[in-house]
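Consider this:
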Amino acid sequence: MFTAIRLPHRHDVIFAAVGLLGGLLLWLLGLHTQRGHPFSAPWATLVPLTVTASMLLLRRSAPRTALLVGTLALVTDQFTRGNLATVVMFTDLVYAAVLYGSPAAARRIPVASVLITVAVTVGFLAWFRRPEALLIGVVAGLISIAPAITGVSVRNHRTAAEAARLAAEQTARLAEMDRVQAVIAERTRMARELHDMVANHLSAVAIHSTAALSIDDPETSRNALKVIRENSVEGLAEMRRLIGLLRRRGEDEAPAAAPTLASLDALIEQANGNGASSGLTCVLEDSRAADPRALPTPVELAAYRIVQESLTNALKHAAPGPVTVRLGRIGELLTVEVTSAFGSRPGPTAPGSGAGLVGMRERVALLGGTFGAGAETDGGGTRIWRVRAELPVEEEAVRE
């Protein structure tokens, strides 16, 4: 396999061209940094100049190689008349090696620059034995330590900026996940409320309209149409309340009142009217009269919806017979139980989707309670369908 050749960055090409042209201009003007060295021929200065300029093309793709070759070129330049452009380009190679090199190189190059500068300073002091030799150490520091420290600073800044960007992206992803989960939870809640509010009325409409169409009796049809109209009006009113709640924007508006267990009598009366033609009789048995303690609003709403959905299911599927709703309180638990006769029944029925049981189970789970529903046999050997929920009424449990 062939390895793709990485072309120099356009900025590196510009830096190399400017450095080379600047060095040529200094060379043509006869501006050199040194005199009296072994390679004093004018053309000798162009060799390290050209090599250093060519290394600028590799400052990003191969920064370590560029620095090593550039160092050799700088040392060679000291044996010629010298060119200031070569020194300036070498400082950029040091900077690029720290900025674009490996993390290990970014740590080692500044340390090496300090050690080389100290060694050069001590060496020239021992050689010249004059304080002016310190100036050579200053120059060595300017062309090695300064660009290395600058490279470290820029690299750390870029690393911090990248870390901040990644953190911001992660925060944005988490916020989006929270938003999506909140939308899904709200949609689920709305679907549950819509089902519980409207399913009872639509089930009654479906059953009585089927009865009106299948039984050729004016009185039966008149009673069925009456029930259909009542349930249609009530279902429409509840739909309007739900739509108004969804459209409300002002925070100062009072929230819509949630149904409570005190409204169960009206619900039972309505269920009796809807189920009379199917042979259903609904009865409420509330044993909480001796317990005056109030229930949290979420618990009352959940209990009301469980009873409402259970009555709707009884209207759809229950065999003729009693439908008993029992409420009780055992310690810190509110018990809700609805039983109805289990089996087939004559006359029209309404199809079920299973969403009602799912909604009841979700409501109970949100409050940390227990829920069960299924067919079983009572003490007299009669097959019944029982729905039972136990809801914790402690405020702490409801808030969790």
The CA atoms of residues 191 and 359 lie 9 Å apart. The longest helix spans residues 133-214. Confidence is low (pLDDT under 50) at residues 396-400. The chain has two domains: 10-172, 275-400.
